[in-house]
């Protein structure tokens, strides 16, 4: 009787504690989502704007191929340090993990050579595109990667899209087309031409970049299904190939000039900022998407377009007219529509698929971060 009474008294107390813990967890999750949104917007907009800024400054320009190599090397170094920290400084365990992941499982490592090659090409093309296109135009046009990713997902992974997603893809294409027509015949083309930049070269670069981004993302997802490697190890594998392939591209394109002037020629504090943004920004986003569902990521992309456009007006004298606003508005709306969950799909399943698709959903990452989905844990007697 006494034990039963004690148990009955503990039950309400435990229930109250669980509710309080769950409420606190929800508040933390909400704050993390807003922080995630801010980080995604800042990273998306700042990288494009900063690249555009350093590439349009007067004077000697850095070699973009060397910047791509430097960013890949920094990314590998960062991931190595993170894994070493996870191993609590145990060098023997760390070396054993690297040997097992890179050498013993060499076939899995070799699989990443293809997406790494495409990502390296994509990073170089982004520099070319942003150097020749207004930042806002690039930001809008680059959203075509959503279209290419969707089409490759349907063709390679046999995924199905909802009617809303198909409609959003049509609107996305229409919005980009409107922006390009406006740019082709408007004042922006004159401004670009006068600055010794090629609008056509920039446009071709961003289109190829979108195609490569879509294919690489889907191929990466396909070959890594069932893989147990952590997000940090994946980035080390990608970064090793990316550094080697980047060096090859640098030698092919700028080898003679870099041999004469040096690898770090033209590097300023602002250029280093761009490189750090490119190197660490991607890793930061991989962590942040753990707390961001598809809708939040879509909203962040849309908002970053607005931020880039407004900043370009004040920083680069970008001219925004009614046609550009219409095209950009269609793209922003399409991005948000595409990110909406499918009908008859629960929020939990959407969140699960989102986290599994992103690079952030793995146990290694969980050891660094609080779990945004878990309610307060119940104490066992």
TrEMBL record:
Domain of life per record: Eukaryota
Biased composition (Basic and acidic residues): 15-25
GO MF term set: pyrimidine nucleotide-sugar transmembrane transporter activity
Key words, A-Z: Golgi apparatus, Membrane, Sugar transport, Transmembrane, Transmembrane helix, Transport
InterPro entries for this protein: EmrE-like, Nuc_sug_transpt
Major site of localization recorded for this protein: Golgi
GO terms under cellular component: Golgi membrane
Membrane topology: Multi-pass membrane protein
Region (Disordered): 1-25, 344-381
Segments passing through the bilayer: 34-54, 66-85, 164-182, 202-220, 232-252, 264-289, 296-316, 322-340
Pfam families: Nuc_sug_transp
Record localization: Golgi apparatus membrane
Start-end of Low complexity biased regions: 345-358
Similarity comment: Belongs to the nucleotide-sugar transporter family. SLC35A subfamily.
Protein name, UniProt field: Solute carrier family 35 member 2
Lineage: Eukaryota, Metazoa, Chordata, Craniata, Vertebrata
């Amino acid at each position: 009787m006494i034990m039963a009474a004690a148990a009955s008294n503990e039950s309400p107390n435990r229930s109250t504690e669980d509710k309080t813990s769950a409420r606190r967890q929800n508040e933390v999750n909400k704050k993390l989502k807003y922080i995630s949104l801010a980080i995604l917007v800042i990273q998306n907009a700042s990288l494009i704007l900063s690249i555009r800024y350093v590439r349009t400054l007067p004077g000697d320009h850095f070699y973009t191929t060397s910047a791509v190599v430097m960013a890949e090397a920094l990314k590998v170094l960062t991931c190595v340090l993170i894994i070493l920290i996870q191993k609590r400084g145990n060098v023997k365990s760390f070396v054993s993990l690297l040997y097992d992941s890179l050498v013993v499982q060499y076939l899995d490592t070799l699989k990443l050579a293809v997406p790494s090659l495409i990502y390296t090409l994509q990073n170089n093309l982004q520099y070319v595109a942003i150097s020749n296109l207004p930042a806002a135009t690039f930001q809008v046009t680059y959203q075509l990667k959503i279209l290419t990713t969707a089409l490759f997902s349907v063709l390679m992974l046999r995924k199905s899209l909802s009617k809303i997603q198909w409609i959003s893809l049509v609107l996305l294409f229409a919005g980009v087309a409107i922006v390009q027509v406006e740019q082709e015949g408007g004042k922006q083309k004159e401004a670009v031409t006068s600055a010794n930049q090629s609008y056509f070269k920039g446009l071709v670069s961003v289109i190829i970049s979108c195609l490569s981004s879509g294919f690489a993302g889907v191929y990466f997802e396909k070959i890594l299904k069932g893989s147990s490697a952590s997000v940090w190890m994946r980035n080390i594998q990608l970064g090793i190939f990316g550094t080697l392939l980047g060096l090859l591209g640098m030698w092919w394109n700028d080898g003679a000039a870099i041999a004469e002037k040096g690898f770090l020629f033209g590097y300023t504090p602002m250029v280093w900022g761009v490189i750090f943004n490119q190197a660490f920004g991607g890793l930061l986003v991989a962590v942040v998407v753990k707390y961001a569902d598809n809708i939040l990521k879509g909203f962040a992309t849309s908002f970053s377009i607005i931020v880039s456009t407004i900043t370009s007006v004040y920083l680069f004298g970008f001219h925004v007219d009614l046609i550009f606003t219409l095209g950009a508005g269609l793209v922003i709306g399409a991005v948000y529509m595409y990110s909406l969950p499918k009908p008859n799909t629960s929020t939990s399943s959407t969140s699960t698929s989102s986290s599994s698709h992103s690079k952030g959903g793995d146990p290694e990452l969980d050891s660094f971060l609080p779990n945004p989905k878990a309610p307060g844990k119940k104490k066992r007697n």
